[in-house]
Design goal:
Blueprint lengths: L4 E8 L2 E8 L2 E10 L2 H13 L8 E7 L2 E7 L1 E3 H10 L8 H25 L9 H4 E4 L5 E3 L14 H12 L17 H9 L10 H5 L7 H16 L5 H10 L8 H6 L4 H7 L11 H12 L10 H11 L3 H14 L18
Antiparallel strand pairs: 1-2, 2-3, 3-5, 4-5, 6-7, 7-8
Helix pairs in contact: 8-12, 8-13, 9-14
């Protein structure tokens, strides 16, 4: 069998792009260059031994001129990926809203994948220094990580701010200045909330899984689990309902909807509201959780006409578009107000096993 060879087509610093030639085949590849054979071999060995679906796949180790190249599946570093997007950006009025609109689909998907991977990882060895470790695969657009073998195998609290810096850098890439106001970019409220709360100090009160598994990434079924889980948490007394209601009240200027007034005007959902008088509840804001839980149960018990979770959630989201953000941010306020981390803040709030 002949030794593997490569053909380099492009270069970005110590990262090469081209073809790996092996056993008569040519494979599109990204190559990481090393002068030190031991370091190249260390990374190659680690990647071969850790073939998780969120870690870059490794093809081979190749000698090229005076360097050792670790041949990876074809991918681009996240910064390179968005710089190339910026180079293709055509706009006569290059302003913040237009740029974010241009990248929003990719940005949202990539951020969701990063947060999902990060929330499930307990150590920082795979995620430390996100600027260098996050790659986007060319053919599927998936996020994968390149392990930083020099990282300390410790919890990743210190890396959260680096992730926020990276996201801010990408959002502001064409303008080259520090973001002063997210509102200029015309972002969705869910993204604004996520970036605002992405702070390592919050991890003193909650786990990465809780902080990163945020409404920005929730599907309708996740919103269902959120309501049901939160209702159970409140019933079991795992949080103080009155204190939680106070946290929601602190946010009333930001989330200014009157949920009882809105629901009372709905021809169908009003009947569930009238069944139990939520207007008289001493915990007015928090009582919306019990109401929404009752809605789900009403339409999925043995007597009522069954309606899919998606349809129910769509109806609630149209009526109360700020509901899930308000409740989630209220929980973050609640957690930050305590000097200890309560068990409910140690995992994702939408887990099916609360």
């Amino acid at each position: 069998m002949s030794e593997p060879d490569c053909a380099i087509i492009d270069q970005d610093g110590s990262v090469y792009y081209g073809m790996l030639k092996i056993s008569g085949k040519e494979i599109n590849s990204t190559f990481l260059a090393f002068k030190d054979e031991e370091k190249a071999l260390e990374l190659y060995t680690h990647l071969v031994e850790h073939q998780d679906d969120w870690i870059l796949c490794c093809h081979h180790l190749v000698r090229y001129q005076d360097e050792w190249l670790v041949a990876l599946e074809y991918s681009k570093n996240i910064v390179t990926y968005f710089r190339e997007r910026m180079a293709r950006w055509e706009s006569s009025n290059r302003n913040e809203p237009e740029w974010f609109n241009y990248i929003s689909e990719d940005f949202g998907k990539i951020l969701r994948d990063v947060a999902c991977i990060w929330a499930k990882s307990n150590k920082s060895i795979h995620t430390q220094d996100p600027v260098k470790s996050i790659f986007i695969t060319n053919f599927s657009g998936r996020v994968k990580f390149l392990p930083n073998l020099n990282a300390s195998d410790q919890p990743m609290e210190g890396d959260i701010d680096q992730l926020k810096y990276l996201m801010n850098y990408i959002v502001n890439m064409p303008f080259g200045s520090v973001i002063q106001n997210y509102q200029k970019f015309n972002m969705p409220n869910e993204l604004l909330c996520f970036l605002t709360q992405l702070n390592f100090r919050n991890l003193k009160s909650m786990s990465p899984a809780f902080l990163l598994d945020a409404p920005l990434f929730w599907r309708p079924v996740d919103k269902f689990h959120f309501i049901i889980n939160l209702d159970h948490i409140m019933k079991r007394g795992e949080i103080s309902v009155s204190l939680f209601d106070g946290c929601l009240d602190r946010l009333r200027k930001k989330y200014s909807y009157d949920w009882v007034l809105v629901v009372s005007q709905h021809p169908v959902l009003n009947s569930i509201l009238e069944h139990q008088d939520f207007r008289q509840s001493s915990n007015y804001h928090a009582s919306v959780v019990r109401y929404c839980s009752n809605v789900y149960r009403h339409y999925n018990d043995n007597t009522a006409r069954k309606i899919s979770i998606i349809n129910i959630e769509n109806e609630l989201s149209m009526l109360l578009p700020e509901l899930y953000l308000h409740l989630f941010e209220g929980l973050i306020f609640y957690a930050k107000g305590k000097n200890i981390r309560y068990p409910i803040f140690s995992k994702s709030i939408i887990s099916e096993n609360p």
